[in-house]
Structure formats: structure tokens, C-alpha cells
From TrEMBL:
Pfam families cross-referenced by the UniProt entry: HNH_3
Domain HNH nuclease per the UniProt entry, residue ranges: 21-61
Keyword ATP-binding: no
Domain of life (superkingdom): Bacteria
Keywords: Endonuclease, Hydrolase, Nuclease, Plasmid
Magnesium in keyword set: no
Name of the protein this chain belongs to: HNH endonuclease
Organism of origin: Deinococcus gobiensis (strain DSM 21396 / JCM 16679 / CGMCC 1.7299 / I-0)
Record SUPFAM superfamilies: His-Me finger endonucleases
MF terms in GO: endonuclease activity
Taxonomy of the source species: Bacteria, Thermotogati, Deinococcota, Deinococci, Deinococcales
Length: 119
């Protein structure tokens, strides 16, 4: 049976809302609130290590699952065809979390353009 991860929490004294500490730290370092879909990844895998240099903001849960999968495969010795894609996740960076944000690559087509099918 898999052991459940433990996360430190912080309680906002004005609202009484309890939030995970790593999300609060990331939002403070970014200077803006986190978007609902953004995920905070702990580089060293230790969910109790909330040092700002250990936190990485990822754009979605799907991207986080993709990164975790490839990191686990690499740990088991499986070769990865494009190691440069995970370079930003694995390298040790100093500075703000802005350095650690990986850009989301979205299609430039609008939702209306997606609905139109050209024959």
C-alpha cells in the first residue's frame, strides 16, 4: 500500500481558510495568486521541503504527471529520447520561481476556429 504524502498547511487568520504551505510560498514568490490549474512540484520529491528553490510551478496536472512519469523512468534506467525537454525540471536553479515556470504551449487557434471544419 502506498504511503500518503504529508503537506504542511497554513491558516489565513482573516478568512480562516487553510491552504497548503507550498502553494502559499509559491504565490508569494511569484507576486500573484496561483491559477486554479497550476501545480507545485517539489524538485527533490520531499513534500515537507518547502524551500522556494525546491518548488517548481507547472501549468497543469497533466503536465505534472508527464514529468513525474519520465523522472521515474529515468530513475529506473530507461533512456529518454529527448532529455532536453526535462532539463528545466531537473536542473538546480537559483533565484525566483519565475525562472522555474515552464511555458504552456497552446494552439493559436481560437475555440470558434476549432469548431469550424474546412472541407
Amino acid at each position: 500500500m502506498r504511503r500518503q504524502k504529508r503537506y504542511a498547511t497554513k491558516k489565513d487568520k482573516t478568512t480562516g481558510k487553510v491552504t497548503r504551505a507550498h502553494r502559499v510560498i509559491a504565490a508569494e514568490r511569484l507576486g500573484r495568486p496561483l491559477l486554479p490549474g497550476e501545480i507545485i512540484h517539489h524538485r527533490d520529491g520531499d513534500s515537507t521541503n518547502n524551500h522556494p528553490d525546491n518548488l517548481l510551478v507547472l501549468p497543469s496536472q497533466a503536465y505534472h504527471a508527464h514529468v513525474e512519469h519520465h523522472l521515474r523512468c529515468e530513475k529506473r534506467g530507461m533512456a529518454f529520447l529527448f532529455p532536453e525537454l526535462l532539463q528545466g525540471v531537473k536542473e538546480e536553479r537559483k533565484g525566483t520561481l519565475f525562472d522555474g515556470i515552464l511555458p504552456v504551449q497552446r494552439s493559436k487557434r481560437t475555440t470558434a476556429a476549432r469548431r469550424i471544419r474546412w472541407c
